[in-house]
Amino acid sequence: MIDSATVDRIFEAADIVSVVSDYVSLKRKGANYWGNCPFHDEKTPSFSVSPAKNIYKCFGCGKGGNAVNFIMGVENLSYYEALLFLAKKFHIEVKEKELSQEELQQQNEKESLMSLTEWAQQHFTDNLQTPEGQSVGMSYFMHRGFREDIIKKFQLGYALDKKDEYTVAAQKAGYKLDYLDKTGLTIVKENNYVVDRFHGRAIFPIHSISGRVVAFGGRAIKKDEVAKYQNSPESDIYHKSYVLYGLYFAKGAITKKKKCYIVEGYADVISMVQAGIENIVAPCGTALTTQQIQQLRRVLPSADAERSDDKNVTLLYDGDGAGMHAALKNGKMLLEEGLNVKVVVLPEPEDPDSFAQNHDSSEVARYLEENEQDYVVFKINHYMKEAQKDPMKMSQLIEDVAATIEVIPDEVKRSVYTSMACRLLNTEEKVLCSRINAINKKKIEEAAGPSRANVISQAQSVDVPPTDLSVPTQNSSLNDILEKELIRFIVRFGSHLVAASEEEQKISVVEYIKEDLEMDGLSFKNPLYQQMMLDYYERYNLDKMSSEHFFVRSSNPDYAREAADAMSDPYPLSKIFDKNEKDCRIKVKQISIDAADTLFRDLSYSLLNYKSNWLNERIMMKREELKNSKEEVVAIMTEIRDLMEIKKNIDKMLGERHIHP
């Protein structure tokens, strides 16, 4: 358990901009910072960070909250784990009570796995200081040309050449065999026979984007080893398709230089960093994935959607067949994610590791600069010599280039690439455009399925643009909107004091809303909103805590999200709805509630709006009852009349023309 005073210190120290900047490239616009949301895939930034309010809010996917909620989401941690994470980041000492045996057993398994991998990293690093580690592990790294400062930076290590050495050591340190098995550090066979997965290998720790060790790569040192590399398997803390090796160390340089190099292996990254190329990453023993590219794209500067020159990636591969194949495949995936893609092919038989070792830093930088070429140009030139001698191969090349250009999301870039490709392919632009459009149409039809494809086909046959069937239907009721408006008053002004006149005693906004609703026998239909009001009402009466403090720092992610949502708008919007059933258009009246002298007026207006709508729904329900009732007609009609009279008075107070529902 963490005491409340320490929790408060963590929240006060956890600067939201600093926390989010570890995961998202932010640019300041006015009072806030903007970047691409880490919780959903987007190419135009809709993710806002407010340093003044210490909250974040995505206007694309709706997620929002405080620094703790952000870490919970991006690192997939519990509230308790996120607090510890931030305490460590901001150097806050956390003194916890001694946990009981039962509490120890209930500790989050994921944190236990993280703790184990971090222990293992230190164990492997310490092994380099042992006699065997010096003669085998350190000698291997030195033979590869790695400097001691680089070995230390990447936390490289060595697993002693004994089948169960670190398994035994880990168990002595208190780590369960079950966790060793789940992280893949230990291979458990029949009858609990155990084998260290990496014994006798050089160790390359794999870090998450926040710097926590989540997995390992083990490089064989003995020549008779069957597998050159052994990698950690998938686990609860490691999903290799989402992790880029070296990104934690590279993200600062990537943001600064607005560019990232991608290579194939761990040693390629390390040698290039040693040669001065710090903005460089590699997939973790797998082919480059869309998820890894999206992770990278969030780090690349991208807040200005029109600044395409901020989103640069260069593929750096050796010139053999495998390297060329990887460049051709991965370049298209990167283009599809809206990045500017270039390729550097190294002279055979060099790879990035050997090239960096055989040249000084100035030679490496110069070669990269002088030999970069655009990916589409590289692709055309690679196939052109053979294709121009064979009409069938030329046709296939045009089709391939069309499919490559089609994935580019930016229309202007597609047009530029189309014109350039036509010149290089010596073909008419209308031919290439026709193929691009045909590929695009086919993809849309396949994604939409047969029913929508038929709609599109019919619409295009009569030269009418097809209806956008992807637009969701509006299912938010008026009640939902009005309840959300009242909850915004509670979140932003719940502890503010209000009164109808100077003679009346002032009470808090949360008390006023709760008591006013209960006086009329009303409560929020949305259970989350009802619970938010009740929880804060109870807390306010306990110690007068401010509503912003209560909701923004809440351990409940739903509360924190709603708080971020409420505080991201400069004002709530009071809606005046046309009551004509055939015309449900919404007129919006903007009401500023930042000024203290208007707070009570605007709050009263919103409460009256809410009651007017409740009465309207009640009248409609009673009219339906009237249609089906034969015995209580008079009673129902009397109730409808009374409800309409009350509603008429409320609507007059709202200043609206009364329209019978």
- CA-atom Rg in angstroms: 31 Å
Tell me the strand percentage band.
Answer: 5-15%
Shape: globular
Beta-strand segment tally: 21
Strand order of the largest sheet: 12-14-13-15-16-17
Distance between the termini: 55 Å
What structural category characterises the helix and strand content? alpha+beta
Spans where pLDDT lies below 50 across 5 or more residues:
302-306, 450-476, 570-596, 656-661
> Tell me about the biggest sheet?
6 strands, mixed
Percent of residues in helices = 40-55%
| Count of helical regions | 28
As an assembly, this protein is single chain
**What's the overall average pLDDT, rounded?**
81
Offer a few descriptive terms.
disordered C terminus; 13% strand; single chain; globular; alpha+beta; 28 helices; 661 residues; six-stranded mixed beta sheet; five-stranded antiparallel beta sheet
